[in-house]
Design the sequence.
């Protein structure tokens, strides 16, 4: 099925820019998969109490030394729950017609402090690709993106008020997106938004901060002053 990736705010592939083939830039399909996994993980924690308990127990008391990657372990459990994720086939490359350069700020969410500034390759617009996206991803994407946007908005009301109008508008528009996702290079946190569901669960949040040395809410986000928007908010849709 022909689908459209609509970048409602700037997206980036990696810190060094977009990969290319034959001189033409593309957005890796693996980044779409990552964003789908994060959304579905958030959704599954709220939908399936047994899955949520398994993850909670692992985060609270699991032996991290016996596995190669905490993130991979959690995603393996997600794939066991959702066969749709195992069967999902995405293109290796989503070709981009045009990329541009933006001055990008990396912002610490908790304080609003600008950690670094640099020029960066970004894409804003529409790109076509072929795939079959399971219906559950629509619900998962909305649930996750609303949760993430509201969590960031809650911080920025106090730490960076100039971002409040953007987030208020975004939270109002997300339900109009066919499949909302947060994708690409939008944070420096290696977990992305995978642990977001525990941001407001004090007991688990404190354990995550102690054992994984990070907060469930990503600690940094990328912001484009020109667009007055944070990075990565996209929609996958069947029609424009």
Sequence:
């Amino acid at each position: 099925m022909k689908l459209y990736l609509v970048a409602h705010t700037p997206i980036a592939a990696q810190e060094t820019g977009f990969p290319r083939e034959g001189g033409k830039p593309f957005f890796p399909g693996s980044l779409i998969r990552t964003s789908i996994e994060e959304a579905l993980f958030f959704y599954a924690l709220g939908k399936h109490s047994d899955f949520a308990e398994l993850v909670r127990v692992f985060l609270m008391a699991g032996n991290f030394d016996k596995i190669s990657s905490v993130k991979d372990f959690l995603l393996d459990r997600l794939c066991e729950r959702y066969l749709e994720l195992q069967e999902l086939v995405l293109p290796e490359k989503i070709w981009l017609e045009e990329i541009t350069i933006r001055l990008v700020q990396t912002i610490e969410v908790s304080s609003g402090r600008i950690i670094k500034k640099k020029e960066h390759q970004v894409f804003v617009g529409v790109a076509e690709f072929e795939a079959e996206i399971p219906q559950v991803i629509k619900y998962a994407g909305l649930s996750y993106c609303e949760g993430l946007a509201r969590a960031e908005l809650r911080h920025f009301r106090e730490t960076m008020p100039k971002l409040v109008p953007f987030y208020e508008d975004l939270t109002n528009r997300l339900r109009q997106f066919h499949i909302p996702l947060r994708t690409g290079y939008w944070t420096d946190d290696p977990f992305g938004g995978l642990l977001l569901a525990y941001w407001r669960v004090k007991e688990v949040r404190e354990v995550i901060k102690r054992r994984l040395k990070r907060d469930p809410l990503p600690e940094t986000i990328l912001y484009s002053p020109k667009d007055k928007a944070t990075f990565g908010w996209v929609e996958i849709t069947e029609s424009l």
